[in-house]
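Re-running the complex after MR caught last week's input typo. The corrected sequence lines follow. Everything else is unchanged.
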Amino acid sequence: MKLLTHNLLSSHVRGVGPRGFPLRLQATEVRINPVEFNPEFVARMIPKVEWAALLEAADTLHLVEVPKEPIEGYEHNEKFLRKMHHVLLEVDVLEGTLQCPESGRLFPITRGIPNMLLNDEETEN
Amino acid sequence: MAPPCTWNRYLLLMAQEHLEFRLPEIKSLLSLFGGQFTSSQETYGKSPFWILSIPSEEIARNLMKRTVCAKSIFELWGHGKSPEELYSSLKNYPVEKMVPFLHSDSTYKIKIHTFNKTLTQEEKVKRIDALEFLPFEGKVNLKKPQHIFSVLEDYGLDPNCIPENPLNIYFGRWIADGQRELIESYSVKKRHFIGNTSMDAGLSFIMANHGKVKANDIVFDPFVGTGGLLIASAHFGAYVYGTDIDYNTVHGLGKASRKNQKWRGPDENIKANLRQYGLEKYYLDVLVSDASKPSWRKGTYFDVIITDPPYGIRESTRRTGSQKEIPKGIEKCPESHVPVSLSYHLSDMFFDLLNFAAETLVLGGRLVYWLPVYTPEYTEEMVPWHPCLELISNCEQKLSSHTSRRLITMEKVKKFENRDQYSHLLSDHFLPYQGHNSFREKYFSGVTKRIAKEEKSSQE
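Corrected-run output:
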């Protein structure tokens, strides 16, 4: 699971609503996965990122050199975009959990794939 | 509205399959490249010859880099219903437009294409000779000419009734071919990871084109299966997300769908499929998730949602939910009961899908999905609607004598506000939705009737 994905996921446990974001990340196996750098794509993602959640996740994974916020003129700043590219797309959580901050419910990540299925009782109507 | 006379006319030679899907594909692609569909031609129905006006050759070339419905495009220099009409039309084509491709330093060749008829070499040469009046100054080069000119003769569509003379003749400068070779190179037959309902390659590219997928988009498939639609989108440069409720499919585990193969191998998952085509960099993530209970946070971040939801026939329609939710009169599932999930009413599924699209698509983004239909009862009113989504196209593909599926394309034209979720309750449209609930029932009723009929006739 990439950190870009983590940034877009939220808990949908019954009654939790917007307080289900961001999910608390815990990782037991992480891999750095080189991905071809595409500055246009990274630049397009910057406005969609919830920065506080990204920094929290990056911190949990002990990542360094994570920009604290988008800088002015980021669209043309290759250094900035390369750092964001690495954080958003190249850090891959293979095993771990995502935890609902409100209910504590855990969603497992196995082989890089999060399992967001809830049991019958937990589902929101 | 007549197109500006500064626009050149082009002849599109269309492939003769997926007939209904062709016009929406061309329209969507022209719109993607800043053009629009402009033509003085009356109908496009079954004909493979389409004349349109396009603002620039660049747009025409971009169109061909995407289309799987069109074989080739030509800059149209003349046409008519007889050779005389063609020659007269050619004489009226502005010489200054011809000259750049005919000057003495250039090389060229002329090809004769006939449709629904075969000509002898002698007949072809006669036709080329008849064009001597054109101001060709360059040298003929049959192997690697700079410019290729084509004469296209239309002998109709009925192979049992071939006219003596062509119905239409066109002359044009060949510009580019379409992407029909993708159908073979991405064929499901060669793909590493397939499922029972993997989408035919040609249709998956058509869907991506209807959706106006472009490079650097984020495309999402909520019923991703083995990822065929993501492959097509990634081929066009989009980054892709997928979810599916089936754990084994998402992880690439369990029984294989290929004949003679028992279990899936390590190379069989969505990421591996993308890798097979050199598209791994476009893989974002896949998740095990229930499309009726999405885990995405509030916001608009999908550019296109392309999907083939389960119809409840070959793959079961499921969702997670509490036992209390089971309504009265739920139809019986032919498959054995799955403990955790209850049968997902098809109309709920489409309603959820449209709502999800309205919430998470960027403004101007598109939703492309298949809608199963019981043909004897189909009316246009049955197509699900949403106040935020405008219907762009609705194309039918027959599945059996009484069922078909329709490829629905919708575009988000209005920002989503919470109250939009409930508008459907106020509308008459809600009632026909019931038809989708019993699609599965009707599908099987057709099958059981036929089996009963066959048994009866074999007993007689």
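None of the earlier attempt is carried over here. The mean pLDDT of chain A is 94. The longest helix of chain A spans residues 78-90.
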